[in-house]
């Protein structure tokens, strides 16, 4: 069995070809897609977070709304850029959203990706020491993880407005168990080892910020193994989780072929990101039997317990729900995922 969820970037565009033409459309359709995903048997609804872009941004109102409208699926992010976050306020928001969903939050966080603006985190009031924004993201993460433990740290007012429990006060609302449902979006093998040392789950996407010449899925499988090995060395007492993202499109109709027939035979790509080499994974498109054969050879998918399917949200809720249904009904059984 493998958990199967979707990952939406939440794009919107005023173009007549888009089914998602406004921020309102993107948010409301994201909720509807999560409901539809639960109905067809998917296991998770995950949303990308980008600032200064016509995409989904502040995630917690959306996550809480999805939690209120669904009852079973996991709800998460992939990923929240920790350079932008106030970790204390984020702790409160995450706790509230998790409690509304009944403990189904799976928060993917990370250092973040290339931005729409120059040093956008500075507009949010965050100034990295010595200009090291990656270190700032990890510092924010450390504080966030500590606060999720729920330990008191703040001295109470001797004359409070409302009665306090004894001792130092913690942030509220506290959601027990959320600390073990935090994931780090790791772009390299070294970062995957660091993720394990921090006791976070591993979230690996369709690109890695390194290239050793081997196919993407093999490099990603190596990343996953290094994460698991580092987890054992760290001595954590619970089992970690690992997710990988893929673009997978079963072709079962003329419309599918019109949209994605050109993706058949896709290959890895090698390029540059943030000044360094990067390897981008291929897309999968084809008839279900063909997809079963190709996906069976993907070593990283085999090594992960969770598969996140990147969906073209601008094609609308109905079409994307059908893509999920086609994968769950026509592809997953042949691979032993269902």
UniProtKB/TrEMBL annotation:
Organism of this sequence: Tessaracoccus antarcticus
GO molecular function, one term: oxidoreductase activity, acting on paired donors, with incorporation or reduction of molecular oxygen
Gene3D superfamilies (UniProt xref): Luciferase-like domain
Record GO cellular component, one term: cytosol
Protein name: LLM class flavin-dependent oxidoreductase
Pfam families: Bac_luciferase
Domain Luciferase-like: 9-252
InterPro entries: Bact_Lucif_Oxidored, Luciferase-like_dom, Luciferase-like_sf
């Amino acid at each position: 069995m493998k958990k199967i969820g979707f990952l939406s970037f939440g794009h919107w565009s005023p173009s007549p070809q888009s089914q998602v033409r406004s921020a309102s459309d993107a948010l409301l359709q994201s909720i509807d897609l999560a409901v539809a995903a639960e109905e067809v048997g998917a296991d998770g609804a995950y949303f990308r977070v980008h600032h200064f872009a016509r995409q989904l941004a502040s995630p917690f109102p959306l996550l809480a709304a999805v939690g209120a409208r669904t009852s079973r699926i996991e709800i998460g992010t992939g990923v929240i850029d920790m350079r932008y976050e106030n970790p204390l306020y984020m702790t409160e928001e995450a706790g509230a959203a998790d409690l509304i969903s009944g403990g189904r939050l799976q928060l993917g966080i990370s250092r973040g990706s290339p931005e729409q603006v120059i040093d956008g985190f500075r507009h949010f009031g965050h100034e990295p020491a010595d200009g090291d924004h990656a270190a700032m993201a990890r510092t924010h993460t450390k504080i966030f993880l500590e606060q999720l433990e729920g330990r008191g740290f703040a001295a109470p007012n001797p004359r409070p407005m409302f009665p306090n429990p004894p001792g130092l006060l913690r942030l509220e609302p506290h959601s027990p168990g959320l600390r073990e449902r935090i994931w780090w979006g790791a772009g390299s093998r070294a970062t995957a080892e660091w993720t394990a040392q921090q006791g976070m789950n591993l979230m690996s996407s369709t690109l890695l910020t390194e290239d050793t010449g081997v196919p993407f899925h093999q490099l990603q499988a190596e990343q996953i193994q290094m994460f698991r090995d580092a987890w054992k060395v760290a001595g954590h007492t619970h089992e970690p989780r690992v997710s990988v993202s893929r673009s997978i499109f079963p072709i079962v109709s003329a419309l599918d072929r019109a949209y994605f027939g050109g993706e058949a035979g896709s290959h890895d790509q090698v390029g540059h990101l943030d000044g360094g080499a990067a390897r981008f994974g291929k897309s999968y498109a084809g008839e279900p039997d063909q997809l079963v054969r190709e996906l069976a050879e993907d070593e990283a998918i085999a090594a992960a317990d969770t598969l996140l399917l990147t969906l073209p949200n601008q094609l609308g809720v109905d079409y994307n729900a059908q893509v999920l249904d086609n994968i769950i009904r026509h592809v997953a059984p042949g691979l032993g995922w269902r």
